[in-house]
Design a protein that fits this description.
Elements: E1 4-9, E2 12-18, E3 22-25, E4 31-35, E5 50-52, E6 55-56
Antiparallel strand pairs: 1-2, 2-5, 2-6, 3-4
Length: about 60
C-alpha cells in the first residue's frame, strides 16, 4: 500500500508524510532531490510513516 500526503501551495510544502522516500522531480520528470528515510520491515512498527520538514522547493 502506498500512502503520501502533501499540504502546502505552489513551491512551499507545510506538511508531508509518507511510508517511502521523498523524491522531487520537475515537470520534465527529472529528479532533482531525494530525501531518504529509515526503511521499515513489514510489522516492524505500528506506524512506519515518516514526516518530512517544512521546506520551499527550488522548482
Amino acid at each position: 500500500m502506498f500512502t503520501h500526503i502533501i499540504r502546502g501551495s505552489a513551491l512551499r510544502i507545510t506538511h508531508q508524510n509518507a511510508g517511502v522516500d521523498f523524491t522531487y522531480a520537475d515537470t520534465g520528470n527529472r529528479t532533482y532531490r531525494t530525501s531518504r528515510g529509515k526503511t521499515h520491515d513489514e510489522g516492524d512498527e505500528i506506524n512506519p510513516m515518516r514526516t518530512n520538514s517544512r521546506q520551499t522547493l527550488p522548482r
